[in-house]
Amino acid sequence: MAASEQTQSDYWNGDAGARWARHQATFDRVFAPLTERLFAGAALRPGDAVLDVGCGAGATALRAADIVGPSGRVTAADVSAPLLAVTARRAASRPPGGAPIVLVEADVQTHTFADAAFTHLISRFGIMFFDDSIAAFANLHRALRPEGRLTMLCWRAQAENAWIDHPFGLVRALLPEPEPTPFDAAGPFRFADPARLPGILAAAGFRDIALMPVDEPLVLGHSEAGDPREAAEAAANFALDLGPASRLVRDQTPEIRSRAHAIVLRDFAERVSNEAVRLGAACWLVTAVR
Length: 290
Description:
The chain has 290 residues and is an alpha/beta fold. It has a domain at 8-157 and 185-216 and 283-289: Rossmann fold. The protein contains 12 helices and 7 strands. It has a 7-stranded mixed beta sheet, with helices on both faces.
């Protein structure tokens, strides 16, 4: 989702990282079903040593620390200082009993981790943005112990992700046609084709590689008071202020942004069910062994 003229570090240390940091609670809520699927696949145990790649605002690192407990440890790595600052605050205020969390502001493609330091590597949508994917996974392979496990989520194709594709479709007619993304460019759909990632992981040294499709409805907006209009408004705000479609409208004129919001709000108002707007998400749950 980064602009083509920026490095990933620039992007996530700029407005994007600050925006995700401010709205951490909303992102955690929306992605909660996918977080559950990640941890069901990872099957962490007390005492494990975990590296969380692209930890963001800390939801996955904190969850891992709770599971592995005081006899385990968690290293949370990200290029974004704003997001790591949120993780640090959340880690400092958590109840006692979890594993210590070490924060690393770094690109894991090039950062020097101790050899064989971790039993598990986890990532929730943090592995699609490397400059050189084989080099990055080779570096992570070295950081895992023999028989160490990798468990990651990455997006399937945009067309399969209604929570992204539907808002895009609603507003696209208002906007210039976006430039096509190069096949191997860093971005959310880099590993949508299930034939791509296994070869990269194998070249980096991993084995027993598997991709399992994960499909979950995401609640983009809801109303605690049971007000359908409030639910539709919350969902429209998420889609156009925070979600991937936000990059289409953020730099447009106020008139275009207002028209886009009205179109999305009208559509979402017809989709409210049980005080919420839900659209589907489609991912790969990727597992491998060192």
